[in-house]
Amino acid sequence: MSFRSILGAVAGVTALALSAGSAGAQEKLKIGFIYVGPVGDYGWSHQHDIGRKAVEKAFGDKVETTYVESVPEADSERAIEQLARTGHKLIFTTSFGFMEPTLKVAKKYPNVKFEHATGFKRAPNLSTYAAKFHEGRYIIGQIAAKMSKSGTIGYVGAFPIPEVVSGINSYFLGAQSVNPNIKIKVVWANSWYDPAKEADAAKALLDQGVDIIAQHTDSPAPLQAAEARGKFGFGQASDMEQFAPKAQLTAIVDNWSDYYIARTKAVLDGTWKSEDTWGGLAAHMVVMAPYKNMPDDVKKMAEETEAAIKSGKLNPFKCPVLKQDGSQVECKGDGALSDEQILSMNFYVKGIDDKLPQ
Amino acid sequence: MTMFEAILLTIVTASTPLLIAAIGELVTERSGVLNLGVEGMLAMGAACSFAAAVTFDSTFLGVAAGMLAGVAMAAVFALAVLGFAANQVGSGLALTILGLGLSGLIGAPFVGARRNPVEPISIPGLSDIPLIGRLFFEQDLFVYASMLLTVAVALYLSKTRSGLTLRSIGENHTSAHGLGLPVLRMRLLAILFGGACSGLAGAYLSLVYTRFWSSGMTAGRGWIALALVVFAAWRPGWVLVGAYIFGAATVLQLHAQAAQFGVPSQLLSAVPYLATILALLLLSIRHGRAIGAPGSLGSPFVPDR
């Protein structure tokens, strides 16, 4: 989308001009953030910005933060390098598509520390981090199966990539664990963010007999479509209760604040090392919004599952995991699929009666 | 409500904003001005209408604010391309960028606010007709307005003196000027009309379609409206057909996915575009007449030249 790139470039230049203007205090640690969307998206980028604000609050005048929003992935190198050049010593790049540009800039600026979200390429001064959202999806799968009257639950997906596919599988395995006969229908919006189309996708599911909607797209539209029909759904990335107070059962909330504070502290203390962090409910990187609009027994079940996942007693992808054709997936982890296997998942589990678009 | 009815109703919702925005742009282009700022005007219409509707708790004021925002954006564009004879493509793109940015700013305090649905108006008697009754006679005001708008624009362009003037200005502004026709004034009105339509379409998006505002929610619909005008060969009736085919294909491909036919979703997602192009191509072949853009489309007019 070239027009968005122009927009992003304008936004980038403006933000950089602002940041350059405020360079003055020498002692402060300057931290930069690159967002793929607008901070007002009420989803992914919004949650990262909440993390940035938490860092400012935690460290006061010891730090100074700058963010550049709506940076197109193809044009991100310039924005990242600009931050590195203007004295930012810790830079968070918060979209998968920023991986190569971040790596390139990291090599050029060995004294700057970089943190890239959801990627897998690291360097001595480049860490990676992500969150195990699929843990939350197992819980909402259980809730969905309990709450569904029709026995068919729905899922609005963005793109058939491993991150989304593993979420669908985890959701379905959770649902299956309370109702072995549960059915699922998946509709791909082929967009991360198109509220009207996401709403249409949810309506199509509802029209075809689905009564619980889960989503892996970024707007509250599917949840709201469920509310308009008197059905239920789940919030995505942030607590979307205000958009659908009667329909939101819970939400899988991204919480980057603790991680950003920890990493900032590491830089200030001089203990920062290049690492790979993939935390879930236990690490508090994934947080469940309050369980609402459901009977007490369902709520209790959800809380128990949440506690079990946190304590490590329960793993959504515990072995054996069966593929659609019934064949068993090789168990490379400790009694469950390995992180590597989950991060590259490209198959549906047994019971999902649909073909995964490849 | 049967599933068939439900699908048809969703199709109407998906098609209406495209139709309204495209009809507005059609009038602008027929006067010889290419306004690529539809997406920006749409975003402004969506943001301002939602902000006003929430602030005053009135759908009517919301719609009025949305249309006004569209007109205001169009006025900025008109100042550039008519007042200063600036490049229309550049000005239009700038308008889109301005609109997307400004709408984010105006809408920011209203992210997360909620509005109740706009109630459909049912026409007594007619809405009881099986199958098509609810489809045609129990819709919200926007849908009726979009239909009336299409008919009115078609009649205006083909049957009225003023419509003829507008078309001649679009075909050849130098000759039209030589004949004493008010080139700039007609173009100004056409641009403002296009802005009002885009604003209305934006209001429909945020007040009826999704019922919330968030930055970038127009998601490229302005560009689709622009493309529809071209593929419909600048004819109001064909714009209507194109908008509905696009809306229908969009909704039906989602249903096809939910029904698990096993066709790759990426392919299904392309269907709306392919179907619309194909249908409008067939229409133009059957029509058998050479179809071209208005002769002066996109070129600036300076009276003394």
Automatic annotation (TrEMBL), chain A:
Pfam families: Bmp (PF02608)
InterPro entries linked to this entry: ABC-Purine-Binding, Peripla_BP_I, PnrA-like
Record's signal peptide: 1-25
The keyword Signal is assigned to this record: yes
Keywords, alphabetical: Signal
Superkingdom, taxonomy of origin: Bacteria
Domain ABC transporter substrate-binding protein PnrA-like span(s) in chain numbering: 29-304
Protein name: BMP family ABC transporter substrate-binding protein
UniProtKB/TrEMBL annotation, chain B:
Primary location: membrane
Pfam families in the cross-refs: BPD_transp_2 (PF02653)
Topology of the protein relative to the lipid bilayer: Multi-pass membrane protein
Keyword set includes Membrane: yes
Transmembrane region(s): 37-56, 63-86, 92-113, 141-158, 188-210, 222-247, 267-285
Keywords: Cell membrane, Membrane, Transmembrane, Transmembrane helix
Localization terms from the record: Cell membrane
Keyword Cell inner membrane annotated: no
Name of the protein described by the UniProt record: ABC transporter permease
Organism of origin: Microvirga puerhi
